[in-house]
Specification:
This protein has about 280 residues and is an alpha/beta fold. The chain is built from 11 helices and 13 strands. It is an enzyme of class 3 (hydrolase).
Length: about 280
Amino acid sequence: MTPLGIVAGSGEVPLRVACAAQAAGRPVFAALLDGFADPADWAGIPHIRERVGAAGAILAAFRARGIRQLVLSGGVQRPSLLSLRPDAAGARLLARIGRAYFQGDDGLLRAVARALEAEGFEVVAAHAVMADLIPSAGQLGAVAPDAQARADIARAIAVVRALGAVDVGQGAVVQQGLVLGVEAIEGTDALLARCAGLRREGPGGVLVKLVKPGQDRRLDLPTIGPSTIAGAKAAGLAGIAIEAGGSILVDRPATLAAADAAGIFLLAIDPDQFKETMP
């Protein structure tokens, strides 16, 4: 079986992908991005640790092991050009990326994928290796949304799609029709922490996370897990809706158990169809 390379940022998904590939008998080698992936979590899995700008060392390590397929997974805070300090290969990739370095995350990741493909690699989706990361449409936990929550979801869908159209973010929090916050570069956990201080009296709000219009679905899909549930609970939210077939649900059993225990609903929705089913 052909080996798989993983460029790993923060979060659980890169490691889960590695473990799933290994369980299927596929050799894995990871490049852990310094400051994001924790080497202690990768004990027992072959890996190197390199800074973001060390593309030459990373690609050379993959080539030395016969790796041609790569998964790009995990959170990475975009470094400034001054701190990037690219090596020769990194400078070559940066030249290919060009102005996309200053675009939104989807624009940048598309450019990175194209640059890696020009280097002879194939970029594949995390869920191509671990299919059960992606939920189908439906109510995922024991708690169901009420009419107010469904109206807030519909409002959030419109907001997130407007954000996504200009490659800004994938999520928004809406309570009683009011937009408490939108996701930009800070990420979902920080969005929820910020919205905790903006909560209004009455029914709790909702977090909605969707794929950006035209997004490359191999890269940076909306992701939630147990930490998202904890943040939603602290923010006083009634529930979370994610895009069915286009969002990653990390550690499904633990996430659903946490949502049920917190009394938070969790839905996987088709954004186009959801409006039609509003009460």
